[in-house]
Amino acid sequence: MSGSSEHAAHAPPARAAGVLEGVRVIDLSRVLAGPLCTQMLSDQGASVIKVEPPGGDETRALGPPANAHGDAAYFTAVNRGKRAIGLDLSLQEGRDVLLRLLEDADVLVENFLPGTMARWGLDYEADIRPRFPQLIYCAISGFGEDGPLGGLPGYDAILQAMCGLMSVNGDAASGPTRIGIPIVDHLTAYTAQSGILLALYHRARTGQGQRVDVTLFDTALSLLVPHAANWMHTGQAPGLLGSAHPNIAPYDCFACRDGQIFLGVVNDRQFRKFCDYVGLGGLLQDARFASNRERLQHREALRSAIQDALAERTRDELCHDLMRLGVPAGPVNSVPEAFAQTHAAHRGMHVQRDGYQGIGPATRLSQAAARIGRPPPAFAQHTDEVLRQAGLDDTQIARLRELDVLPGKPSPKQ
């Protein structure tokens, strides 16, 4: 309870209650989409137990750079707020421990290859649902269980290629290009979180849990707005436009004296304000630029005129003034420049605490603020703590270690 001074011996550090306080999550996922989903649930108050195989989450090794535990910075970005245990689910005793943890769990998240859980006797419909009818089971995969691609592994960049994202990213010089962040994994994490929250709401109304099915394939295709809609209406395949927009002009990068800006003019009112400010009033009398439709048809002439007008201006002053006139414009910042913005500090988007640094929560609720919990855990850091809370005594825990069910450090076994 928020404000209480009494805590269990191994409870997380005291913090204000989040909206998901009391929700217990068992996280079997690795790499990015699943761990980011469960980190976001943790930021909103959920208790998350990260269950790793003997080899550990692969992301721990995706460095340098690394933290004091030797875990890659990549791992720390998506695993804060969790307690971690090591568990070999290929052994029956390991699966028995998992079932023990599920007895008071609300959510299970996994991203194994489809069919893995079923081979272990943990199929949702046959094994999990009958035993835990209130459990919300979230399965994240590349393509789902069935269909022509069902059961195949999925990776962000491969899905960017397969689902058309690369075909609209880049320019004539670069050719189709991977988007610079694992955007499919990221949105899949948010999609999984949304599905879990919908299922929790449904359970509150009906008392019943359910399976949430999330795939990178579906998520990647869902990102094709407006490109897919344009193609569906015209039959013409979208192409490479660099930073430009297929439906809006001017909406592109432009070079200033000291760097680039992005200018995003989406209506005629903004276009008039922009032209007046940068000395391009003559364009307002030119029929080629009278509306967005005409501007799109003459985008190259428009781009040339704008580039000439901005070439000797300084980017920060220009963006400052345009934004305050209601014309969307922003400097093209590096990652360090992005986090150095005073507004990033104001919004709490660079978390720094007790040696940990991370990106702050993007979701804010007025009545239940997000809180940053524990730092990212070392491998199997909380194994004994979690198992004791699940009702196992020291003798049982020692026996599991003798059977190699509870690895104490990552190994290449699995």
UniProtKB/TrEMBL annotation:
It holds the Pfam family CoA_transf_3. It comes from the Bacteria. Coiled coil: none annotated. GO terms for molecular function: transferase activity. Its EC number is 2.8.3.19. It is an enzyme of class 2 (transferase). Keywords: Transferase. This is Acetyl-CoA:oxalate CoA-transferase. The gene is uctC_1.
